[in-house]
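Lab channel / #folding
Pinned by the channel admin:
"Please post every new chain as: sequence first, then the structure tokens as a reply. Keep commentary short and put observations after the output so the thread stays searchable."

First post following the new format, from NK:
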Amino acid sequence: MRLGGHLLTKYTPPKEWTSLLKKCGYSAAYCPLTTQAESQLVKAYQEVARRHNILIAEVGAWANPLSSEPAERKNAREKWIQSLAPGEKYGTVTTL
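Reply from TO:
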């Protein structure tokens, strides 16, 4: 089992990110990037996470795909697809 959480502190990516995670006792983390992140930055986070045994374990995908409103369901699905894109770059992730 891994413990992880959000970092509420500002940090300069990605090296300081792992230091702060380790300081909190985390070996899992919320995905620190958005879908607009450049591939070089994604690779930098992947490498530093691997090197420090940090699992990118969650990405934000908060929307209601079970709405009774067709338009809201469609928008929720689109939001999930966009929100999960960074996770695809990292490998296995869990969503809430």
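NK: The CA atoms of residues 61 and 96 lie 7 Å apart.
TO: also worth noting, The chain has one domain: 4-95.
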